[in-house]
Amino acid sequence: MIGKLFRKNCETCGSGLPAGASSRALFSKPHLIALAGNPNTGKSTVFNALTGLRQHTGNWAGKTVARAEGRFTHTGENYRLVDLPGTYSLLSASTDEEIARDFILFGEPDCTVVVVDATALERNLNLVFQVMEITSKIVVCVNLLDEARRKGIDVDLDRLSGELGVPVVGTIAGSGKGLDRLVETIAAVVHGQLTPSPRPPAPPEAASGPVEDLVQRIRALYPDLQNARWIAYRLIEGDYRIRQALLSGELASLHAAESGEAAS
Fold first, then answer.
1. Rounded to an integer, what distance in angstroms lies between the CA atom of residue 211 and that of residue 123?
2. Please, what sign has the CA dihedral across residues 240, 242, 246, 249?
3. How far is 12 from 218, CA to CA, in rounded Å?
4. Would you say 61 and 9 are in contact if contact means Cβ atoms under 8 Å apart?
5. Helix or strand or coil: residue 78?
6. Where are the beta strands (DSSP E) in the chain?
7. What is the phi-psi region of residue 64: left when phi exceeds 0, alpha when psi lies from -120 to 50, beta otherwise?
8. Is 226 or 111 the better-scoring residue by pLDDT?
9. pLDDT tens digits for 46-73?
10. What is the mean pLDDT of the chain?
């Protein structure tokens, strides 16, 4: 399915593995990691720091939007990192938003990292909450901690993690600080050693009735869907792509495929 949405990776590209990397990392299927975030959060700096020269660029299939992806290794395993377009939301109001939303939903990454600016958490958390509605496999990377300290802002990462229900890692990507911890946290989520339990905010009281009614209807049709509430929001907002994916069974098949892979 993902091949229909996204351009096939270059099969002639080098493995990008550092000298001495194990053959297991060379031949094993890489874990797929999505990198999301608002513009100007240092997301590209995080991407470059993790992948180094082991990256390549192109365009998203059928789009003029640049696509960058790269690889990194951790404890002998290969990780494929896809740098999504910088967006403020996933409401598919623009091409960038549509690409980011579709990749997180239909690309089925093993983990989605959302990079946020430590100096503008309130604004950036809007995207975090929207990603939470799609997937529970999420890590929040609070970047630019040095800028925050210069502005007198002290971010309580442990408390933020507790409030959000997902792992939170602080970084200063420009100097590499915190990136080792970020990679370890990504790996822990991928392997189930950390199980995020996202706590997105409740809908406004006026909308809660229609949302709950629609969620129940969706779950009656597709009881295994894990993101029924997010789908309900999108249907209420008239998202044609999601409506078609729900009616065709495409969304349900995604969960069935994921469950089958987990069982195997």
1. 24
2. positive
3. 43
4. no
5. strand
6. 31-37, 55-59, 66-74, 77-83, 111-117, 138-143, 168-170
7. alpha
8. 111
9. 999 999 988 888 888 888 888 999 999 9
10. 84
Residue at token pair 């993690």: 161
The letter for the amino acid at 195 is: T
d(CA 105, CA 107): 6
Nearest to 81 by CA among 31, 132, 9, 26: 31
3-state secondary structure (DSSP) of residue 21: coil
The Cα-based distances of 63 to 10, 13, 94, 178, 211 in angstroms read: 17, 22, 12, 34, 33
The string of pLDDT tens digits covering residues 25-42 is 455 689 999 999 999 999
Q: How many residues are given for the chain?
A: 264
Distance CA 138, CA 180 (A): 17
**Residue type, position 131, single letter:** V
Where do the H-state alpha helices sit in 140-204? 145-150, 157-164, 179-190
Q: How far is CA 176 from CA 168, 173, 188, 194, in A?
A: 16, 5, 20, 23
Residue with tokens 């239909």: 106
- Rounded to whole angstroms, how far apart are CA atoms 239 and 216? 19
Residue 56, token pair as written in the block: 């390549």
Distance between first and last Cα of the chain = 20
> 118 is written with which tokens?
């430590």
182 CB neighbour count, 10 Å cutoff:
22
The 10s digit of each residue's pLDDT in 104-153 is 988 889 999 999 999 999 999 999 999 998 899 999 999 999 999 999 99
Residue 141's beta-bridge partner residues?
115, 169
Give the residue carrying structure tokens 């270059």. Answer: 10
Angle between helices 228-236 and 205-221 (to 10 degrees): 120
